[in-house]
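in:
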């Protein structure tokens, strides 16, 4: 068969894996993109394995299996998913909030937090957002994820409120949050190609984690962050091991998403055999 295609969300939160891919797994056929793009590529069968928005597993569970051991999670503050607002969050009653088009998980997380923590049902609009002009004139708040959100968290714009959604989720539930999972299409998991690919992904990830300093140094010339900022973020705020506690928190997230009709039902968590 043709070389299987592996999706990769190339945000800084998975920099170690990206570094590992480039140094230990050059033979893998990597497809790069933002979460929403890869979510769809996996849905239509254009890629076989990918890290995807955790909410997307619930929407595609009949066709996917979760890869054990790896995820993107944070115990509390995530620092790279933030709401930027002109006014205090509790006052966003009928206001327009612009949602980044890059991530489905963050969109659902914000809706859950505003509904449950603040009893708010504002008006949402999905479109592109920009760090240079975080909240456009026709809105009062905007949701950012990924590298842009991390920059805003570390360098808050004047005259705006900045809310970390990981912290807000922890305040609401007392739990950590799983933002991304690695998943495989069920039909590919049954082939002889799956196990070698999965093992290469794990080895690449481990290589990147063990060489985190080198991974960070490799991107400093192209990113607006210092070494210390990324060193504190990676392995500090962001963690990658898929633990039993993380899975329990993920189930709570799915339950709350289903209660708001953001997903059709709470999925069973099914794992690939490894």
């Amino acid at each position: 068969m043709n070389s299987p295609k592996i999706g990769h969300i190339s945000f800084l939160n998975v920099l170690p894996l990206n570094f590992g891919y480039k140094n230990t797994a050059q033979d893998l056929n990597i497809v790069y993109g933002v979460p929403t793009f890869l979510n769809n590529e996996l849905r239509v069968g254009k890629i076989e394995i990918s890290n995807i928005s955790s909410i997307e597993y619930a929407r595609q569970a009949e066709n996917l299996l979760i890869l054990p051991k790896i995820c993107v999670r944070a115990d509390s503050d995530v620092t790279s998913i933030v709401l930027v607002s002109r006014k205090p969050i509790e006052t966003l009653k009928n206001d327009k909030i612009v949602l980044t088009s890059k991530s489905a998980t963050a969109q659902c997380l914000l809706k859950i937090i505003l509904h449950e923590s603040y009893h708010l049902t504002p008006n949402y609009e999905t479109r592109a957002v920009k760090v240079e002009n975080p909240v456009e004139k026709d809105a009062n708040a905007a949701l950012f994820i990924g590298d842009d959100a991390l920059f805003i968290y570390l360098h808050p714009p004047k005259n705006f409120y900045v809310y970390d959604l990981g912290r807000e989720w922890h305040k609401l539930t007392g739990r950590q949050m799983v933002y991304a999972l690695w998943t495989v299409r069920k039909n590919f998991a049954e082939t002889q190609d799956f196990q070698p690919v999965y093992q290469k992904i794990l080895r690449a990830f481990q290589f990147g984690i063990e060489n985190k300093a080198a991974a960070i140094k490799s991107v400093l010339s192209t990113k607006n962050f210092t070494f210390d900022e990324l060193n504190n973020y990676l392995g500090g705020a962001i963690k990658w091991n898929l633990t039993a506690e993380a899975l329990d928190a993920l189930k709570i997230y799915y339950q709350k998403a289903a209660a708001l009709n953001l997903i059709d039902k709470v999925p069973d968590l099914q794992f690939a055999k490894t």
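note: The radius of gyration is 18 Å.
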